[in-house]
Amino acid sequence: MPDAEKADPIPWLLEEENPSVRYFTLIDLLAVPPTDRRVRAARKAVMEKGIVPRILAGQKKGGYWEKAEDFYQRTKYRGTVWQLIILASLGADGADPRVRRACEFVLRASQDRQSGGFSYVGTPRGGGQHGGVIPCLTGNMVWSLVRFGLLADPRVERGIEWLTTYARFDDADGAAPKGWPYDNRENCWGKHTCHSAAAKILKALAAIPGKKRTAAVRRTIEAAAEYFLKHHIHKRSRDLSKPVKPKWTKLEFPLMWDGNVLEVFGILAGLGYRDSRMRDAAELILSKRDEHGRWLLENTYNGKFRVDIEKKGKPSKWVTLQAIKALEDYGI
């Protein structure tokens, strides 16, 4: 039987049938320069074969999927915001006109013109409803738009400002803040911070290159990191023998509104955190590696996506790629 510590999954990850995984393996694991012909070929293939072109083929002329007004709520996980998250996760090219149309649609339909946050429901006049702005969606949209090269867009800058202004990382250890947006949705803004929303906020801000992070962005990242470290990433802070919820221990790709242990561990490790409170998460992730040095897809929204991605219970190139990178960044 192969030894998991000695098994090398890299040739498997480099197979051409999944150009997105091949591309990220080359740049993230092997540190191949972006000018290398292999990287350029893989980047081109992402847009020409596999899942990305299949998703883009279903896009309507206005840059949306399904019905324009159903960009979030009634068409989980087939509407526009979900396709933007998936395309960003797969490494789709933000310069592609179809991807740019999707970005522009979301900015027109979902972003609250008053605050800069992103809402799960639009208004008849365009823009997101002020009362429908939620933190997980705002984090996901900012992350996706930054991945697509729109960091300098003033509308994206407003989304980032919303995150740094309204993000909170309470641990039910004091009075919850009052007023908008905290009074609107108990699930998002209860006395205890929503673990999933905190993950998406951290993910979005960590995607901003270090030299371009404002003081407010840096402070918010530090607050989010300490919140997760207090929870050993995926556990209840007041009872570290229990996960925040069982789903957080399951590895999946792509992640939608929720998070999991690998996502946050990978973000913190990528930011340079080596805190001992991350060790529980590292050991959990390592325990899931098989004898071939691979990880399984333990959870999925397949059947709800427009295009299914990998198979539940089978070795996952995406999870394996992310686990290897996270553990290497942590120093394992």
Quick gist of this model?
This protein has 332 residues and is mainly alpha-helical.
Which terms summarize this structure?
single chain, 332 residues, mainly alpha, two-stranded antiparallel ribbon, 14 helices, 4 strands, 44% helix, 3% strand, globular
Describe the fold and architecture:
With 332 residues, the protein is mostly helical. The protein is built from 14 helices and four strands. It has a two-stranded antiparallel sheet with strand order 1-2. A two-stranded antiparallel sheet has the order 3-4. The longest helix has 16 residues, at 215-230.
Total of helices: 14
Percent helix, as a range, is 40-55%
Shape, per Cα inertia axes: globular
Distance between the termini: 22 Å
Secondary structure class reads mainly alpha
Describe the sheet with the most strands: 2 strands, antiparallel
Mean pLDDT: 95
Strand content: under 5%
Identify low-pLDDT runs. none
State Rg: 19 Å
Order of helices and strands: HHHHHHHHHHHEEHHEEH
- Total E-strand runs: 4
> Strand sequence of the main sheet, in spatial order?
1-2
Secondary structure blueprint with pairings:
Blueprint: H1 10-13, H2 19-29, H3 37-48, H4 51-56, H5 80-89, H6 97-109, H7 135-147, H8 154-166, H9 186-189, H10 195-206, H11 215-230, E1 235-236, E2 239-243, H12 261-270, H13 279-287, E3 295-296, E4 315-316, H14 317-330
